[in-house]
Design brief:
Strands 1, 2, 3, 4, 5 and 6 form a 6-stranded antiparallel beta sheet that branches. The protein contains 15 helices and 6 strands. The protein is 51% helix and 10% strand. By secondary structure, it is an alpha+beta fold. The longest helix is centred in the first third of the chain and has 23 residues.
Length: 340
């Protein structure tokens, strides 16, 4: 190698070595230190507040006369399951037994939610029947009606067997309008077995509520050798197949109250009423009885005392007019529409 070339090589090698040392030895800036971790302290929830005792809720609502709140609390107990049904029934008794007849209707309306709990009422009714307390009797008065509204006609019908007289009347009221043709033979037997006229009339009304299916049953009862049964069945037939539109008289109130099944006789010491059971009132004064509203308007004419009221009636298919004293009291019955 020539000397000039060697010198050049050494100079280049030295320069490269110096430059590499400079670069390696140069201090690099330090990376920033990581930020300290932020520790979030989680606040753990404490134990939930104890749920209010439903029975305490009922008692507080009763004390405040807040019947809706009391009824809602009872309904919550019923919905929670059968273990709570006994205290729920006791709470119902407590609501119904509050001595305030003016408030009774308000309490009954507030119980609408509980009224729909058919399974609870089927459980509660046998217990209330055994209880016999005043509150239990009030409950039964409502419960049978609630079951009727819930469509439990079959259960009500089956409960007729062995029912006491007072309970029997509740059952028949609840059964009206919920009769199937299969029930009619047993109900017809009940008419003959009834121990008083009021229960017989109820049986006949229940049978008539079956509509056209009741017609042959009532026709058969109308031939009974028992005058009261025969007369009642003939009247009930007019519910099924009315000969005229108007108000069908089932019971005459006030002076002249008539003894049913007695051929038109009256109670001792009372004047015979010109209006009889089975009459259909078609007109009161100048007001035609062509709707239930028309009858409600007509009832006001019976209230004032003094003077006479002319009434148009249909009796055994024959139209006639009679007069009754104002203030004698409107008869009891139901609006019917002529069969077409």
């Amino acid at each position: 190698m020539q000397r000039s070339h060697l010198i050049a090589y050494l100079l280049i090698a030295g320069a490269i070595g110096w430059l590499g040392g400079f670069l390696v030895g140069r201090r690099q800036p330090a990376a920033p230190a990581p930020a300290p971790a932020v520790v979030h302290k989680e606040t753990l929830p404490g134990p939930p507040p104890p749920a209010p005792n439903p029975r305490d809720r009922v008692d507080q609502a009763i004390a405040a006369e807040d019947w809706k709140e009391a009824a809602d609390a009872i309904d919550a107990m019923v919905v929670s399951g059968e273990p709570a049904w006994a205290p729920a029934l006791d709470a119902l008794y407590e609501i119904l037994a509050v001595d305030d007849p003016v408030e009774f209707g308000v309490r009954e309306e507030a119980l609408d939610a509980v009224a729909k709990r058919a399974a609870f009422h089927k459980w509660a009714i046998p217990r209330a029947r055994k209880d016999g307390s005043f509150a239990a009797e009030l409950y039964l008065e409502l419960a049978w009606g609630w079951l009727g509204e819930a469509g439990e006609g079959k259960y009500i019908f089956e409960s007729l067997a062995g029912a006491g007289e007072e309970d029997l009347q509740r059952l028949l009221h609840a059964l009206e309008g919920r009769v199937t043709p299969e029930m009619l033979p047993e109900l017809a037997k009940g008419v003959g077995a009834a121990k008083n006229a009021q229960v017989q009339v109820l049986y006949l009304r229940v049978i008539a509520s079956a509509g056209a299916a009741a017609e042959p049953v009532l026709k058969d009862l109308a031939t009974s050798s028992a005058p009261l049964v025969a007369e009642g069945a003939a009247i009930a037939l007019q519910m099924v197949k009315p000969p005229a539109t108007g108000f069908l008289v089932l019971n005459v109130q006030g002076r002249g109250d008539r003894m049913p099944g007695n051929g038109g006789g009256q109670r001792p010491g009372m004047l015979a009423s010109p209006v009889h059971r089975g009459d259909i009132i078609t007109r009161v004064g100048d007001l035609e009885i062509d709707s239930e509203k028309a009858w409600r308007d007509a009832v006001a004419k019976f209230v004032p005392r003094g003077g006479m009221i002319e009434i148009g009636i249909v009796r055994k298919g024959e139209a006639m007019k009679v007069t009754v004293p104002a203030g004698a009291g409107a008869p009891k019955g139901k609006f019917v529409t002529a069969a077409r």
